[in-house]
Amino acid sequence: MVLNFRFAVVSDLHIALPHTIWDHPSRFHLVEVGIPAFESAIEHLIQLDLDFLLLPGDLTQHGEPENHIWLQKRLSQLPFPTYVVPGNHDVPVVAANEQSIAFADFPQYYRKFGYQDTEQHYYSQQLLPGVRLIGLNSNFFNEQGQQVGRLDSQQLQWLEEVLAAAVDELVLVMVHHNVVEHLPHQSRHPMASRYMLENAPELVQILQRYGVKLVFTGHLHVQDVACANGLYDITTGSLVSYPHPYRVLEYHCDRQGREWLQILSHRVESVPDFPDLQQLSREWMGDRSFPFLVKLLTLSPLNLPLAQAQELAPSLRDFWATIADGDAILDYPQFPQQVRRYIQAYSAASLIDNNSTLLLEKMMSGGR
């Protein structure tokens, strides 16, 4: 079946109305640009004749009801269907408190955006003839009441049933936490593992069994495309952190069944009050990078002495901004060899993170 359609991905909006902004001196996120950046992206996207828009979580700053209300009202005004899933910031608590909505209430806010069944936090939706979206919930509260990235057994069982019934359909999956590793040894790294599903291997096995090739994630705030045996995890950076990106994608399937996905990435260059958003945002991230870098260097696998980490960290102030940019090339020849090799491992294995055309076929593990 010949199939062609165009859609967009905008991730980690962290929408915050001005009176709700949590203004902490060390925060990484420029949440004050969330609404104007979203409006800038939408202004562009409504010109493109999109078939649909995907928002893979962290829709709001901290799950504030007024921010959820603002967003669902704004989404209802768009000229194309929009689908969401919850991020960790959208449902940070089980029971509502003075700041955030209750976990159970999330689907109620987004009935028009995937959640026709408001009794569960995941859904299956036919987007176009022959095209199905599965929206998953990766927010799980363990026995200690802590929020972690995990799909519970009930959701996995439901997923298998939906996939088994989706015969001859192209299936797209959207979930907040990463499914395939985007950083070196991400699932085991003491700082990076929280951005991945705890049971990602189980989900990957199910998706591969049913021939799913495309998963759209957020959470990590970087531009990256990773692949595991033909399953692509396309993660999109955040609108409130450098480089303030969003993606426009076109899928094509010809009469011979060959499938391509073209990816074009765009950036919000400026918003009112931030005319040079890109430069300011990169500096903002660099200015706040020192504690993060010291922690990275002193933790496993490097385990550098604190004094050495503090000495090297200033040279790495743009390290995370470069990774967030996508298609990173990192090399610090002046560093000790062990440290240099470790930093080089964060470079992109191939330059496909921002603008590329993927031929969707079985392949060996890739990514970084």
UniProtKB/TrEMBL annotation:
Domain Calcineurin-like phosphoesterase intervals: 5-222
Q: Which Pfam families match?
A: Metallophos (PF00149)
Q: Which SUPFAM superfamilies match?
A: Metallo-dependent phosphatases
Q: Which UniProt keywords apply?
A: Hydrolase, Iron, Metal-binding
Recorded superkingdom: Bacteria
| Family (UniProt) | Belongs to the cyclic nucleotide phosphodiesterase class-III family.
Q: What is this protein called?
A: Metallophosphoesterase
Highest classification ranks of the organism: Bacteria, Bacillati, Cyanobacteriota, Cyanophyceae, Nostocales
